[in-house]
Design brief:
It holds the Pfam family UDPG_MGDP_dh_N. By secondary structure, the protein is of the alpha/beta class. 42% of the residues lie in helices and 14% in strands.
């Protein structure tokens, strides 16, 4: 079976690699550089398992910039293009997804369009009405950054926003390619599937916000957040997972998905959704104020990336901290090997780690690192469990 995958980001590439074990997969991207890397079996993304699979596994996978070629004879067209949140419209920018849908439907009278990009509730229904077809359905992804392929190989569940033969066929393809067995499958309406994705990420953001606010309280009262969280987590209703404080949630999904969830509630009475979004802003402001209160001459930012094993720092939480410290008139240096620029957010980027450590009075690290063990007295982090 031939499958076309539009978008070679974490979602698209991990799905393409997964399905290329048993199918002919053609990945499509606007970037010729990314296309060439895939065809040379080199991952354009920093993720160890993706890199290993591309380099060593037998995969029926190719990449192209030619969308028409990719769609020819494809039975499924997976759309995994970006849907960034647009603050002007208060909604996701779904233009790239809409373009792929129109192109794919124009190329084939039979192919099913599987939307993997996160979209607002009601998007698929609108697309189906616009194109007068039921060949479009939403299949949300639940991937962690830096572990996208692993999470496709070991999915917590497979959700498809349709109950058609094509929807069941696609779910079966995903399950057959996975290493896990007995994967829960849920076939829902399109709006329900869209809601599952947004509510799941908003709940994760809520959990991050809760433990961050707990940590802010502990920091302000000079008490041990570790002991408090350990005691709370022993309640089986709460658990000991996803409880490590940070500078706030960031990355590809949670910031934009929580804002989109809030926008979807525009005509529905609510308090919690708005509080989750506001809590993230408050946390970053509190962290920055605490660092400013230490009265350093030079603050170092150790890494912009959100998680180990990832090269993504888009919307990373530490950027809000950087902005407030910089605006307070304090010199800020950034150590980020994944960044090629000499400046970022009007701050100097330092590539030599020893030079970086020597210049800084305080080193701000969202996550603890062995690289900083020799200057532990300079490090400010709220990574109390030492987990990514």
């Amino acid at each position: 079976m031939k499958i076309a995958v539009f978008g070679i980001g974490y979602v698209g590439l991990s799905n393409a690699v997964l399905l290329a074990q048993n199918n002919t997969v053609v990945a499509v991207d606007l970037s010729q550089e990314r296309v060439d890397q895939i065809n040379a079996r080199v991952s354009p993304l920093e993720e160890a398992e993706l890199s290993e699979w591309l380099a060593t596994r037998e995969l029926d996978l190719s990449a192209t910039t030619d969308a028409t070629e990719a769609c020819a004879d494809a039975e499924f067209v997976i759309v995994a293009t970006p849907t960034d949140y647009d603050p002007k419209t208060d909604f996701f920018d779904t233009s790239s997804v809409e373009s792929v849908i129109a192109l794919a439907l124009g190329q084939s009278d039979t192919a099913s369009i599987v939307v993997k990009s996160t979209v607002p509730v009601g998007f698929v229904a609108r697309m189906r009405a616009l194109h007068n077809t039921d060949r479009i359905f939403f299949c949300p992804e639940f991937l962690r950054e830096g572990q996208a392929l692993h999470d496709n190989l070991h999915p917590s569940r497979i959700v498809v926003g349709a109950d058609s033969p094509a929807a069941h066929d696609f779910a079966r393809l995903m399950a057959e390619a996975a290493e896990a067995t007995d994967i829960p499958m849920l076939f829902t309406g399109p709006a329900e599937a869209e809601s599952i994705k947004l509510f799941a990420n908003t709940y994760l953001a809520l959990r991050v916000a809760f433990f961050n606010e707990l940590d802010s309280y502990a920091l302000s009262q000079d008490i041990d957040a570790y002991q408090i969280i350990e005691g709370i987590g022993l309640d089986p209703r709460i658990g000991t997972h996803y409880n490590n404080p940070s500078f706030g949630y960031g990355g590809y999904c949670l910031p934009k998905d929580t804002k989109q969830m809030l926008a979807n509630f525009s005509d529905v009475p609510q308090n919690l959704m708005r509080a989750v979004v506001q809590a993230n802003k408050t946390r970053k402001e509190y962290i920055a104020a605490h660092v400013i209160g230490m009265q350093p001459q030079t603050v170092g930012i150790h890494r912009l990336v959100m998680k180990s094993g990832s090269d993504n720092f888009r919307q990373s939480s530490v950027q809000g901290v950087i902005r407030d410290i910089r605006d307070a008139g304090i010199r800020v240096l950034i150590y980020e090997p994944a960044l090629e620029k000499k400046k970022f957010m009007a701050c100097e980027v330092v590539r030599d780690l020893d030079d970086f450590k020597a210049q800084c009075d305080v080193i701000v690290a969202n996550r603890a690192s062995e690289d900083l063990s020799d200057v532990a007295e300079k490090v400010f982090t709220r990574d109390i469990f030492g987990k990514s």
